[in-house]
Task: structure prediction
Amino acid sequence: MIKEVHIVRCDLCGMEFHSDDLLIENRMQRHQERHNPIGKPASSNIIRGKVNWLFVFSDKIKRGAQ
Ligand SMILES: [Zn+2]
Result:
């Protein structure tokens, strides 16, 4: 039985999340807020902007749908 590796990567800082994480949607939302905080100043070492999530299947990378 083949279990496909599926990783979601933030293209702003390279942080990766595993798709089998039950809290992945919550983690992705919170991570987006780190890059584009509402009403709060971001840390100076964090790139601000809209996160483009990269979906990594094994050794292939394709752009995630917006
Ligand atoms: Zn990031």
Notes: The helical segments are 24-35.
